[in-house]
Specification:
This protein is an alpha+beta fold. Helix 3 packs antiparallel against helix 4 and helix 11 runs antiparallel to helix 12. Strands 2-3-1-4 form a four-stranded antiparallel β-sheet, sandwiched between helices. The radius of gyration is 31 Å and the shape is elongated. A hairpin with a 4-residue loop joins strand 2 and strand 3.
């Protein structure tokens, strides 16, 4: 029995994988919170106006609806503020938001309308948990707590003929809410997981861990906006890789590529470094002095030589107002090609096999 219950509340991925998803879960929750608070705020405007005229002015119902609208508006703006803060856990705000809505639904269903069935509470407890993502166990416990609070309020305030129906419906629809929210949460978490997997595979070179050519082509046009003063480009090409593959095997060639990528990434960072071909790597460096980049290239040459193979590199630099990405990358590639040509002109490198 315990295994069945545990399997039911399982999120479908490992704990480690779920922890990696937290940033995307937070972002998904924040977007849903902004959408829901905004749309409910707009929908509540005619409701507040209707209640004002229906109950004849500033009645208790009017103040309840007006205060609810104020809470919704505040929730929306708070979510907008959180949007600017990186890695902010929005889960607490999600539960506060849900509690406000469910709390108001309990007040309206039992305290202010004791002789009517609790339609508002049933609607909120069924729908709200479906908009947000958290561990199924926590959502289920939250629904249980809300249902308990509703039953207590119903016992205190409901008319005697309405009370049994309200209690029965809260238990039935609370159970349905637990089942549907658990099922939908598992689907959402697995969707985020597989979307992340697909994004990683499409944007990452799996051998080296660097950004892939696919991401390189996607981001090429936005690099001028990533610098304030100038943008530099460095091309690196591994010398004689094809010959290594033939003589020593592809495992040896792969080892060289991994070593080259590790050294390249160590100096230029992972964010703007790409593997764009079999033995070609590119890095973009915003707002860095050319002399500093040349020094980094010299250190790369030394480390590569110590690792037992060689590379050819070239760089180009443009001021922000003059940036032409096609020309920038072409100039760096041309310099790299000239360095490679000189490399193979040397007697000890005369046997060129590519």
């Amino acid at each position: 029995m315990f295994d069945i219950i545990s399997s039911f509340f399982n999120i479908g991925i490992s704990e480690e994988e779920y922890r990696k998803l937290k940033g995307r879960v937070n972002e998904d929750n924040r977007k849903n919170l902004m959408f829901l608070s905004r749309i409910l705020s707009l929908l509540l405007i005619p409701g507040v106006v209707f209640v004002y005229f229906y109950y004849g002015g500033f009645s208790n119902h009017f103040w309840v609806y007006l205060s609810l609208q104020i809470c919704l508006i505040l929730s929306f703006f708070h979510a907008r503020v959180v949007e600017k803060r990186a890695n902010t856990n929005i889960l607490l705000q999600i539960y506060v938001f849900n509690s406000i809505l469910i709390g108001y639904s309990i007040v309206l269903s039992t305290i202010m309308n004791p002789d009517m069935m609790a339609v508002k509470y049933i609607a909120f407890i069924m729908v709200l948990p479906l908009f947000f993502t958290d561990r199924p166990v926590r959502i289920s416990l939250y629904i249980c707590a809300c249902t308990t609070l509703f039953i207590v309020s119903a016992v205190i305030n409901d008319a005697r003929n309405i009370l049994p129906l309200d209690i029965a419906q809260s238990l039935i629809f609370g159970t349905v809410g637990i089942i549907t929210s658990t099922y939908m949460t598992r689907i959402k978490i697995q969707r985020l997981y597989f979307e992340g997997k697909w994004k990683y595979i499409s944007e990452t070179d799996l051998m080296t861990g660097l950004n892939s050519r696919n991401l390189y082509e996607q981001e090429l046009s936005i690099f001028p906006g990533r610098c304030r003063k100038n943008l530099s480009c460095v091309f690196l090409d591994v010398n004689g890789l094809h010959e290594v593959d033939i003589k020593q095997g592809y495992d040896a060639g792969d080892s060289i590529l991994k070593t080259a990528s590790e050294i390249f990434q160590r100096h230029f960072g992972q964010e703007y470094s790409y593997r764009i071909g079999g033995d070609e790597f590119v890095a973009f460096i915003p707002d860095c002095n050319e002399n500093e980049i040349r020094k980094m290239m010299d250190r790369i040459y030394e480390e590569i030589k110590a690792a037992g193979f060689s590379v050819s590199m070239g760089m180009s630099d443009m001021k922000k107002e003059d940036i032409d990405m096609s020309a920038l990358t072409k100039n760096a590639a041309n310099e790299m090609s000239e360095v490679k040509r000189q490399h193979y002109q040397k007697a000890e490198n005369d046997r060129r096999s590519r």
